[in-house]
Amino acid sequence: NAGVTQTPKFQVLKTGQSMTLQCAQDMNHEYMSWYRQDPGMGLRLIHYSVGAGITDQGEVPNGYNVSRSTTEDFPLRLLSAAPSQTSVYFCASSPGRPPQPQHFGDGTRLSIL
Amino acid sequence: KQEVTQIPAALSVPEGENLVLNCSFTDSAIYNLQWFRQDPGKGLTSLLLIQSSQREQTSGRLNASLDKSSGRSTLYIAASQPGDSATYLCAVYTENTGNQFYFGTGTSLTVIP
Questions:
Q1: In terms of Cα–Cα distance, which of B104, B101, B105 is closest to B30?
Q2: Considering CB atoms only, which of B46, B104, B106 is closest to A101?
Q3: Is the Cβ pair B91, A105 closer than 8 Å?
Q4: Of the candidates A47, A30, A44, which has an alpha carbon nearest to the alpha carbon of residue A97?
Q5: Is A32 exposed, middle or buried (0-12, 13-18, 19+ CB in 10 A)?
Q6: Angle (nearest 5°) at CA B62 between B58 and B66
Q7: B56: which strand partners?
Q8: Chain A residues with CB inside 8 Å of B106's CB?
């Protein structure tokens, strides 16, 4: 059972480049979310989706785009990477909206030079 | 905005010792509180979930307590083992401030054989 799969695990970008972080889940979960984890700070919510075709902003959405064309996939796009976006990114899913407990992927470590 | 604090940031104990990790939050109107374990390079694994109406939850050697009125939760680990070495995070769900989970910064635990 794969659960929540994130790719890539590591990525280095130059300032201004764009890229997409992939997230896929095989549990038929309706709710999916993206967090970033920075040293000395708790995980912060970037964007979330309550189902295919529906997305909304979290606490720190600037500089990121998301889409949800299928139940399984929830990619996160960095439009023009900035050093401030250097972080570890986690994707999570749950059967329904919070406060249902979420299942987390292993994360993507992203460095912006 | 809900603020979640975990003290200490790091803890080192000899194997076999009982220990307590602390989590405090500023808005007591929480729906639930969850404790997670995070191993290096991995995502978050849920350990215990306490609903706001509960005072504690137990799983094996782990016991989590909740005191909503004082804005505190503790995670008690009995007879610690080297395999318990990890970062432990708490997260609270609150409906008053943003309808999302708010995470603490974690306590990094090292159990010395």
A1: B101
A2: B46
A3: no
A4: A30
A5: buried
A6: 60
A7: B65
A8: 42
Interface-testing mutation among A43, A60, A94, A108, with chain B (most B C-beta atoms within 10 A):
A43
pLDDT (tens digit per residue) in A66-91: 999 999 999 999 999 999 999 999 99
Which tens digit of pLDDT belongs to each residue from B101-111? 899 999 999 99
Contact A45, A58 (CB under 8 A): yes
- Separation of CA B102 from chain center: 12
Nearest chain B Cα to A90, which residue? B43
Other C-beta atoms closer than 10 Å to the C-beta of B54 total 14
d(CA B96, CA B93) in angstroms, rounded, equals 9
Task: Retrieve residue A60's tokens.
Answer: 């720190």
